[in-house]
Amino acid sequence: MAGGDGGVQPFDRQKTQRQHNALDLICLKVIEEKTSGKLATGDRPDRLTALSYIREGDLLTVQEVDRLGRNLLQGLIVLNDLFQQGVGVKVLEGITVGEHTERSFILTLALALAEDRRRDIVRKTKNGLETV
Question: What is the mean pLDDT of residues 124-129?
Fold first, then answer.
């Protein structure tokens, strides 16, 4: 599942081209999410489409593990639901590279690190805007 950063604009494809380059070659279907990751999973139609498309025995492939959720809890819930359905997760980049069929410490750690990184970016952006 490729992730976008918001509204649909001509340059949005460039933001996700790296993900498409990797995913298009190995996936039967690539679903690009164009809505904000800040929304609840139920308010993210592309995410729901992707999750409803996969079946037991399938392998959901993502560029990085943080594509599964915007925070640790959300990512763990998605992983738990996938693994309970008999769906594996293949991660192409980061410390969790490989195929996963059950929750592990490294997946949890990667999701926690992604949440911290995102929180740090938001804080720095906010601080930068306040100084302008």
Answer: 85
- What mean pLDDT is predicted for residues 84-97? 94
Look at the block and give the residue holding tokens 């100084």: 131
Give phi and psi for 48, each to the nearest 5: -65, -40
Of the chain, the end-to-end C-alpha distance in Å amounts to: 36
How far, in Å, CA of 118 to CA of 110, rounded?
Answer: 12
Nearest to 66 by CA among 58, 55, 74: 74
pLDDT tens sequence across 3-29: 443 333 344 555 677 777 777 777 777
Nearest to 59 by CA among 107, 20, 1: 1
Which burial class, exposed, middle or buried, applies to 124 when counting CB atoms under 10 A from its CB (0-12, 13-18, 19+)?
A: exposed
